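As a warm-up, study this chain.
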Amino acid sequence: MNLSVDIAGVIMKNPITVASGTFGSGMEYCDFIDLSKLGAVTTKGVASTPWAGNPTPRIAETHGGMLNAVGLQNPGIDTFLSRDLPFLLEQNAKIIVNVCGKTVEDYLAVCEKLKGTDVDLLEINVSCPNVKEGGIAFGQDPKALFEITKAVKEVAAQPVIMKLSPNVTSIAEMAKAAEAGGADAVSLINTITGMKIDVEKRTFQLANRTGGLSGPAIHPVAVRMVYEVHKATSLPIIGMGGVATTEDALELIMAGATMVAVGTANFTNPYATLDIIDGIERYLQNHHIEDVKELIGCVE
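Now compare it with the structure written out below.
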């Protein structure tokens, strides 16, 4: 039985990774699970310089999920290279580095510093605000997405995954822009913009007012968007959004995802990824399927 999948020429032992921002660089979880058993570890966002993130409070629970406005707090690429990357290499895990920035130059600086490292793939977080264009996220404008994809591809030594925002009119149009810019793969969906109000205090529960909604509430949206992107492009897809169970992961695979990322579920069940890997293996056995790739995009 074969659980391995291929993302842009990188072979993963199984189709399960973690969603950026929910797993750190794995250090917080290595006491619970063997990271080498994952298809890959996707890091928290890495910027060219340290980011402090947003003011608190920046997390709020909701029905069926959570809102976060952490603001991509991270210690920057130099700390990642000196501390996190050596740790991940010791774990014998495939490594996907999530790259964030506020200008094209920010992204390129991180990609340059990752040249010559044993990082396997780059995931470019285009939900960051483009400060030179008035704050609109790179991933909400097809032209901006095309341009940043093209620029990153010219510099990057590793295959490039563009992480798409669901906060758009047409996710298929955005995926096509990424493909036209030379992306090797796409990942989706990122969080959906939401808001929560404390009715007793009559104020916003997040200092940032709005935040990114994640968790089971957004899963049906993720399934639909993965399906649309699978039909619109030929790119491999890493699907994510509210994945908590084997069934959730299989839905995204059947909709067209080659790989699936587990995010918010890690906060309540640190074993979620391994439970899902075991569940997929049982599904294949029970349905007499030899290769998980037979399920990718099987829903027409």
